[in-house]
Amino acid sequence: MNATEEFLAHRELLFSIVYNVLGSVADTEDVLQETWVAWSGRSGVQNSRAYLVRVAVNAALARRTSINRRKEEYIGPWLPEPVVMPIDPVERSETISLAVLVVLETLSPLERAVFVLHEVFGYQLAEIAEILGRTPSAVRQLAHRAREHVQARRPRFTADPQVRLEVTQRFVDAIVGGDLDALMAVLAPDVTLWADGGGKARAAGLHPVLGRDRIGPLLIGDRVRRPLPSLDVRYRTVNGDPSALLLSGDTPFAVIVLEVEGNEVTGIYAITNPDKLAHVEIR
Predict the structure, then answer these.
(1) Considering the domain boundaries, does residue 78 fall inside one?
(2) Strands ordered across the beta sheet of 209-210
(3) Domain-located, residue 93
(4) Does residue 175 share a domain with residue 130?
(5) 145-155: per-residue pLDDT in tens?
(6) Parallel/antiparallel/unpaired status of strands 241-248 and 251-261
(7) CB-CB contact of 100 with 107 (8 Å)
(8) Do 61 and 102 sit in the same domain of this protein?
(9) pTM score, whole prediction
(10) pLDDT in tens, 230-277
(11) Which residues span the domain enclosing 66?
């Protein structure tokens, strides 16, 4: 294979690793471009996969600085950019849910990189030490801290995909139809809402909202006060989970991802910031 073919053969892996480290599609594409530049100028590389992963991961770690700076200046809750795909019944082991990506945002950049490489992609700690230029003992400590942190904060329950899809449909139908009773019936009492509008689109406040009694009237009241545009609802896979993509004409209006336990919604992630929806393909 020539250089281009070899890079493209590894591109999906590189995208998945870097995106899970950054939580940003746009920044991931920039990192892959940097990786391509390094790859096209390389010489004497014997293990192309190892070389490309090392360059991509370290470029991603360097980019975290600018992402963290943007987060500090961000208006309202910060959610990852969603990866929207057609509904796919095949579970992908390398897919991290949006809810877990939110938890990963609380790790240090090195902890996050170690977690992604070890827990998601199955890299051995010795391999990760070589990728990061750290000692195996230092990487072992990073892996331990990251695993404990994520296990303590990740969602308690993973719903069956079909159940999640059905609950998502009930939730969206209630919102679009302005039906408060139907919405309250699908929300768990301790549900939490994260609404990421980035100050550029409608969102339910600048902080996460807790509790069904606040969230239900807030969502329906907002829909009544500020009527939604005519929306086309399409059900898609978002970061591996059945979710809803709302379109206004041919423009993405919102991505809604739910945490579901039993038949109730325990977490709502609503992304309306147009910058974070710009890469979403309508298909």
Answers:
(1) no
(2) 84-85, 232-238, 241-248, 251-261, 264-271, 187-196, 209-210
(3) no
(4) no
(5) 999 999 998 88
(6) antiparallel
(7) no
(8) no
(9) 0.91
(10) 789 999 999 999 999 999 888 999 999 999 998 999 999 999 999 999
(11) 1-73
